[in-house]
């Protein structure tokens, strides 16, 4: 009798392990259910897109108005006798930042280049007579 109880407890433990942790466990089942929900949402989005494209194809096959509209919008085509006018909007100039309160930086002093003959001598200053 004790052996039967021990065997049943081991069997119960093995089944519980498989139910909670092993392959096909409840965690796996939950993950698969989430995946199914995501796949269904993607499938619905793609079905809607396919319906829109099918409607557009039927519209293009049935009449010239849709074909003409598409040629004008996407290819920039015009009918004979029409004038094409393109409006180019100027973008507003960017705002000029306000000058800082500090004094502007002065450029670094430049060094005078000397000629190969030596430094250049300036003529003596003349005295003005009145």
TrEMBL record:
Keyword hit for Transmembrane: yes
Principal cellular location given in the protein's record: membrane
InterPro entries documented for this protein: Cell_div_FtsB, FtsL/DivIC
Keyword Transmembrane: yes
TM ranges: none
Cytoplasmic topology ranges: 1-3
Location of the region described as Disordered in the Swiss-Prot/TrEMBL record: 91-130
Keyword entries, A-Z: Cell cycle, Cell division, Cell inner membrane, Cell membrane, Coiled coil, Membrane, Transmembrane, Transmembrane helix
Places the protein is found: Cell inner membrane
One annotated GO biological process: FtsZ-dependent cytokinesis
Residue spans, topological domain Periplasmic: 22-130
Family of the protein in this entry: Belongs to the FtsB family.
Protein name: Cell division protein FtsB
Organism: Candidatus Thiodictyon syntrophicum
């Amino acid at each position: 009798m004790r052996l039967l109880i021990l065997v049943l407890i081991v069997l119960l433990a093995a089944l519980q392990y498989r139910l909670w942790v092993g392959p096909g466990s409840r965690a796996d089942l939950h993950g698969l259910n989430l995946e199914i929900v995501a796949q269904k949402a993607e499938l619905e989005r793609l079905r809607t897109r396919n319906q829109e494209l099918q409607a557009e194809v039927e519209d293009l096959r049935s009449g010239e108005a849709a074909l003409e509209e598409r040629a004008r919008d996407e290819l920039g085509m015009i009918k004979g006798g029409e004038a094409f006018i393109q409006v180019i909007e100027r973008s507003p100039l960017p705002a000029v930042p306000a000058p800082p309160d500090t004094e502007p930086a002065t450029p670094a002093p430049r060094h005078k280049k000397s000629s190969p003959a030596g430094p250049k001598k300036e003529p003596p200053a003349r005295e003005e007579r009145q």
